[in-house]
Each structure stands twice: as C-alpha cells, then as structure tokens.
C-alpha cells in the first residue's frame, strides 16, 4: 500500500508526456511574457487595499517593512520554484514537482490544494473586480438591476452578472491561445503599472514627515482567546501575535502576504515557454522583484500622506488623496484596481487549468480533460469546465470569508516545493539544472519555516476549512485516482506480463 502511495513519476517520462501530439501544449512564451504574467497576477487589489488594513491595525508606517518580510518569504520560495521549473519544464507547478520527488499521494494532495487555491482565488478576484466596476458605473449614473448586481434584498435572489461575464470572457481568451493571452495581459499590465506609478509619484508630493512618527508604534499585545477566528498559534501555544511594535511587522506580513499571491502561477506555464530553463527563473524572480519594489513604495507614500491611525480600511489610497484635497485620484485608483484585477483573474484561471490538465494527463483525473485543442494547442476542456464552474460560483457567492483559504493553500504549496528541492537533489543529483537554488538545504529549510510561520498566524477556522477540503481530496484519490493513474496502469501491465 505504502509503495503505491509514494511511487514517483520519472522526470524523463514527465517530459516525454509533453511531446505526445494530442497532449502537447504550444511553446510560445518568452521571459518577458512570463514576467508580465507574474506582474499581472501579483499586482491586484492587494496593493490598493491591504496597505491600509495592515498599517492601521497592526504595523503602522512600518507596514513597508511587512511587505519586505512577505517579499522575502516569497523570494525564498521563488528560488525553489525556479530550480524545479527549469529542471522539470512541465505544466502543473508544485503538483508536477512533488510527483517527481515525494510521490503520487503527496502530489495528489498538492494538486487538489492548488485546484482549490486557484479556483477560489479566481472567484474572489472576479467578485472584487465587479465591485469596482459597479462603483465606476454608479459614478457615471448607470445602475444595473439589483438582481444582476449580487444579492437582491427584495426577493432574496441575486446573480453578479459582471463577475460571471468576466470569467467567461477570460475563459474564451485562454481557449484561443496563450500568445493572445500574453498580448492582452501585456496591454493591461502596462496600464495598471502606469496607474501605480502615477499614484506613487503624485502622492510623494503630499507626504508629511510627521505622519511617520512613530515609524514603529508601541506594542499592543492581543488578548488570548478561544475563538476559531483567532490565529492557530494563539490556540495551540496560548501566544497571541502583537499589534504594532517589532512583532507587529511580522504579524502584518501574514496579512499583506495575500498581495503576493500568484507568482507561483508563472511556473505552471513552463511547458508553454520556448526556453524554460532560462526564461522561467527570470520570469518568476523578475516579477517578484518588480512587485515588491512597487508595494514598498506605495506603502511608504500612503502612510506619509495620512496618519496611519486615520487610514481607511476599504480604500486607503483613494481616501488618502481625498484627505489631501485631490479626489480626482480616487477615480484613477478605482480604474487601476479594476484593470489590475482583470489580469489577476485571467492568470489564476490559466494556472488552475494547467494543474487540472497535468493531473488528468497523469490519470489522477479523467483523461478526457488531457486533450489539447487541435488548432490552438490549449487545454480547452478543463479551461471551459473550470471557467463555467467559477463563473457560476462568482455569480452567486460572496467569497470574502473564504479568501484566506487562498493564503493557506499557497503557503502549503511553498512548503511542498521547498522540501521537494532537497529530496530531488539527493535522489537525482545527475539531473541537469540550469538554475540551482543557492545554499541547499539551508534556503529550502528557511523557506519551510517562514511559510509555516505565516500559516500559523492564519485563523483556526481557515485551517478547519482547509482540512475539510483535504479530506474530500483523500476520498477522491482513494476512490478514483489511485487505481486510474498512469503509474498504476503501468504496474498492472507489468504484472500481467510477468
């Protein structure tokens, strides 16, 4: 039993699978395309919202250091992702990496986790995008019927037509081809980065040095409690993270970490990259450096424009400009946020379809979904299936309470990839690695500890929901995946011949 659970997929076989005509993806992406994808998925609502929440409640002006801490945690993981993606340039990201090192059952767990993370992330972002568009339409005097704007209080029925429509349109773009997706993303990313730069440059003229005093506010310990909404570390060890003070910087890092979600999606496009050994590491690390720099700059500007105690939770940047007597920038920021969320939604959907495609190609999910489009060479079947499901979920559901599941899913993937790097270095030292994670095993171990620290700072109820999803995944694997995987079928054929 244990032998079947931890059977690994040969890396050479994984690469050969990508060359089968009916299961092959078109290689059309460059390092620039991947960097644009990374920036496109990282810069979203987080840069416009989380700064205010973390500064006002947890870190004060030192929230800029919280972004640095979160960026370092992601950078440690990025180094591990870069080695794997350049060594095993196969769709599936952490799922594929763990299949080659940890075994089939751990690979299934991480793949199942990624399906939840990326699907939920896509739906959450689509609902957020809809909110910004509703705001812009309302400002223009255009109002959608209540029943098509979400929850209709009169009848109890509501469908967010804008969120659903966004997902369906992006699904169509992804089916047509990766190069078209890259071109659309490039245009949109250019627009939203321009908006962010305008905000940084304009806001710099309204900074008042007194707003940075104190840069690290005095520590205010959080009282311990037994609620599931409390961080898990508080329930287990009785230790409550601090608001403000030096420890407040690290507590805030677990909040702003959501702003970095998505850089790992770049690794899912490795199979569609022309020179993955060179371009995937550049795309992952380059996009992370760009976004961390922008995040730190925005946080410094907004806390300098307005005292952290007065920052808005819902729209800190927009309200900071209003407080300085420049409300025009509020509309620009809303426009930039709406544009930014479009690419976030598309790239999360892209990543999920690739993970689903890779799992079906391995037989852990029905092989029906492993066929690529005869003309566009895209995984159109899982893309359409997931696009429709997510459109329905986004249309009918407000997912704000579940957003933290995206955080825990991503951090779990970080831990698995870091461990996999160490294992594969020992089991397959002969593999050609065009990019090597430095200081192995020190860097992967630090990555695991840093990710685990942020996970422990998430609410206990998030862990409970995550555990429920994993239990469902176990059932699906043992009822279907374990006996239908290509490795299982290969073993059956070998036994029959023997």
TrEMBL record:
Keyword Membrane, does the record have it? yes
**Originating organism:** Streptomyces griseoaurantiacus
**Membrane topology per the record?**
Multi-pass membrane protein
GO cellular component terms attached to this protein's record: membrane
Q: Which GO terms describe its molecular function?
A: amino acid transmembrane transporter activity
Location in the cell reads: Membrane
Q: Which InterPro entries match?
A: AA/rel_permease1
Coarse class of the primary localization is membrane
Q: What is this protein called?
A: Amino acid permease
What keywords sit in the KW lines?
Answer: Membrane, Transmembrane, Transmembrane helix, Transport
Transmembrane domains' residue ranges: 34-55, 62-84, 90-111, 118-137, 157-177, 184-207, 244-263, 284-308, 328-357, 378-399, 405-425, 437-456, 462-480
């Amino acid at each position: 039993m244990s032998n079947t659970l931890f059977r690994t997929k040969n890396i050479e076989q994984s690469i050969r699978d990508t060359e089968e005509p009916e299961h092959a993806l078109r290689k059309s992406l460059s390092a620039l395309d991947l960097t644009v994808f990374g920036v496109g998925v990282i810069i979203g609502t987080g840069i416009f919202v989380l700064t205010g929440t973390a500064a006002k409640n947890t870190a004060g002006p030192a929230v800029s250091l919280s972004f640095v801490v979160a960026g370092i945690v992601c950078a440690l993981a990025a180094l591990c992702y870069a080695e794997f993606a350049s060594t095993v340039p196969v769709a599936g990201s952490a799922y594929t990496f763990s299949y080659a090192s940890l075994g089939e059952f751990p690979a299934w767990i991480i793949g199942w986790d990624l399906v939840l993370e990326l699907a939920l992330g896509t739906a959450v972002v689509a609902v957020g995008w809809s909110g910004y568009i509703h705001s812009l339409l309302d400002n223009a005097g255009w109002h959608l019927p209540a029943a098509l704007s979400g929850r209709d209080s009169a009848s109890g029925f509501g469908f967010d037509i804008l969120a659903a429509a966004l997902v369906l349109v992006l699904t169509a773009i992804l089916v047509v081809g990766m190069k078209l997706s890259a071109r659309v993303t490039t245009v949109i990313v250019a627009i939203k980065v321009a908006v962010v730069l305008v905000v940084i440059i304009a806001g710099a003229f309204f900074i008042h040095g007194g707003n940075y005093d104190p840069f690290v506010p005095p520590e205010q310990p959080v009282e311990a409690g037994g609620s599931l909404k409390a961080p898990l570390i508080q329930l287990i060890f009785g230790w409550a993270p601090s608001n403000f003070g030096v420890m407040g910087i690290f507590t805030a890092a677990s909040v702003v970490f959501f702003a970095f979600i998505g850089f790992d999606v770049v690794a899912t496009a490795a199979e569609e990259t022309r020179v993955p050994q060179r371009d995937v590491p550049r795309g992952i690390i380059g996009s992370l450096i760009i976004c961390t720099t922008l995040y730190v700059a925005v946080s410094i500007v907004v806390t300098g424009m307005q005292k952290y105690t007065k920052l808005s939770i819902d729209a800190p940047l927009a309200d900071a400009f209003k407080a300085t007597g420049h409300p025009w920038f509020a509309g620009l920021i809303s426009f930039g946020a709406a544009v930014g969320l479009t690419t976030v939604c598309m790239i999360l959907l892209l990543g999920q379809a690739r993970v689903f495609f890779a799992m079906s190609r391995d037989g852990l999910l029905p092989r029906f979904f492993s066929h690529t489009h005869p003309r566009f060479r895209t995984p159109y079947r899982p893309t359409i299936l997931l696009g429709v499901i997510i459109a329905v979920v986004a249309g009918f559901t407000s997912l704000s309470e579940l957003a933290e599941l995206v955080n825990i899913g991503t951090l779990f993937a970080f831990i698995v990839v870091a461990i996999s790097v160490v294992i594969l270095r020992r089991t397959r030292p002969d593999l050609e690695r065009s990019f090597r994670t430095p200081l192995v095993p020190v860097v992967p171990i630090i990555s695991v500890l840093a990710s685990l620290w942020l996970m422990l700072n998430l609410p206990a109820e998030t862990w409970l929901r995550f555990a429920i999803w994993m239990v469902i995944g176990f059932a699906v694997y043992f009822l279907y995946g374990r006996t239908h995987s290509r490795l299982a079928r290969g073993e059956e054929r070998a036994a029959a011949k023997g």
